[in-house]
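INPUT
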Amino acid sequence: MQGAVYSISWRQPGAARVALAGLALVALAMVLAIAALGVGSGGLSLGRMFDIVSGGPPAAPGEQLILGFRLPRVLTGLFVGAALGVSGAVFQSLSRNPLGSPDLVGFTTGAASGALLHIILYGPSVVGAAAGAAIGGLLTAVTVWLLAYRRGGMSARRLVLVGIGVGAMLHAVNGLLLVKGDLDNALLANLWLSGSLNARTWTHAWLAIGAIAVCVPPVCASARRLALLEMGDDLASQLGMPVARVRLTMFFCAVMLASLATGAAGPIAFVALAAPQLARRLQGGAGPSIIGSAAMGACLVIGADLLGQRQLWQLNLPIGKLTGLLGGLYLIWLLPRRGAR
Amino acid sequence: MRDCPPPPPSDVALRARGLTLAHELTIVCQGLDLDIPAGRITVILGPNGCGKSTLLRGLARLLAPQAGHVVLDGKALHRYGARELASRLSLLPQEPQAPDGIRVEELVARARYPHQTFWRPWRAADDDAVRQALAQTGLTALAGRPVHTLSGGQRQRVWLAFALAQNTSVMLLDEPTTYLDIAHQLDVLDLCRRLNRQLGKTLVMVLHDLNQASRYADHIVALRDGKVEACGPPAEVITPERVRRLFGIRCVVMADPVSGTPLVVPVSSAAGD
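OUTPUT
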C-alpha cells in the first residue's frame, strides 16, 4: 500500500528496499523507546524490563513508580512523533512541495492558539488544552482552505502561501495571548508553548494513540491515491480517482493528526517537515511513505528526548526547542541539495 | 460553419451535441456538435485560445458541460462510473508532471489504477499491460531509469506508455508534440499512427503544426472561437481559404512530395483581405 506493491513476476528492487527500510525504522523506534525507559538514574535495566513483562518477579513499588512516569511519557513521544510524521507526509504530498508541512502552514500554530486560549481562560487541564488544540487546528485549517480556494479548485501553491501568512498572524496572536493572561497561567502557557514530554500522563498518551488509531488507517488506505494526486489533478481525475473527495479527507486527517499531536505535547517543531523527507531518503520509492514517516517521526521525537535528557551543558532543553535546533540544521542541509527539483 | 454530414452511429466513438463548456467563468465552447470517428486518428486544429484543450477536457468528463451532452460508444458520458469511464477513455494532458525520483516502470504501472480494486491491487494482467506498453513504446531497456534523467522525447514516450497501459480504446492527447524537436515530434506521431493501425485505438490529438496534422490525421476538426469551423479528411479541410479564416494567414497549399497530403506553405501573415 505504500507507493506501489508488485506481484512476484514483476519484482521491483525498489519495493524490497521500501519494506525493509520501513521495518528497520519501526525497529529503531522500539529500540529508542526501550532506551528511553531505561536511561538515567531512576531507569530500569533491560533485564528488569524483560523480567517484568515476561512474568518474572513483579515490579517493586519503586519500579512501578518509574514505569508510571516513564511509560506514558515514552508512549506519548512515540505516538506524537508518528502523528506528526504522517501529517507531514500527507501535507507534502497534497501540496506537492517538500516544504508543505503543518507547522510551516500555520496549523500547529493554530492548534497552539486554541490550547493557549484554553489554558489562559480556564487554567491547565490536559483534556481541555487538547480539545482547544484540536478546535484551533481545525479552525485554522478551514480558514486557510477557504482563503486559498478559488472557483475551479485548490492550488497547491496557494495553500502553502496562504498557510504561511495565516501561521505568521497566529504566531503573533500567541505572543499577545501570553501578555494578556493572568501571570500564573501565562507562565504555564509559555512553558507549554515550548513543547515538552515532561509530566505527560496516560491522558496525553491515550490522546496521541487515539489520534493515530482514528486518522492513520484512512490515510494508509488512500496512500496509492495520494501518490496519483501528486501527478496532477487532470491526470489523476481521468484515471477515475475522485480528486476533490480524496484531497478533502486526506487534508482533514492530516490536520487532526497535527492538532491532536500538538494538544498532547505542545508544538514540536520540524518533525512533520523532516520525518517524511528523511524516511523517503532511506526507503527510496516515489510515493508518500506513511509507515516510514510515522516510524521516523517517532524516532526523531524519542531521539530528541533522549538527547535532551542528557542535559548537555547543564541545559534542560524542552523537546520543542531541541527539534527546532535540529530541524533548522536539517533545512540548511536540505536546501542546497534539492537543486535538481 | 459545418459542412460535413455526421457518419452512421456505429462508426462514431465520441459524439457531442450542443456542447457548451466554460473555463473559469468564461464560455469557451458554445453549442458545439462533433463526431469522432472510431478507429481513426482525429486531429483538432485551431488558433490559440479557441477552446481545444477545454474541448478535450469536456470530452474526458473533467468538466461538466453547461449545456449539451457527450455520448461515448452509444452511452451518455454522465452515465459511466468513474473507473468504467477511465478504462474506456484516457486523456493525456499538456505537460504532465512526473513525481520526483520515480522510475519509468513505476510511473507506467500507476496507469493501471482504473483496472484495480482495493482488494486486488495488482494482478498478472497489470504486469502484462505494463510490459506491453513499454515494449510498444520502445522503453523496455529504460524501464528502471528515473524519469527525470530522460530526454524530453523519451519522457513523452513514457507518458504515451502511461496512456497505453491504461488500455483504453479511445485516447485523447493534448499537444503531445509541443516542446519536442522535430525528430522526437515525428517519433511520437509515428508511434501514434502505429497504435492506431496495429491496435485499432481511436486517437484524438491536438496539434499545432498544420502539415503534421495533414500527414497523420484521417479526420481533421478545425475549431474557431469554440465552434467547429470545418471537419473532414485533410484534403477537404486544409485549403487556403480555410487556413485564412482560421489563422488569418495567406498561404499556398500543394501536395506534400512525400505523402501526397496537403502541404501548407505560408505566404504572409496579412489578415483579412
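end of record. The longest strand of chain A covers residues 149-150.
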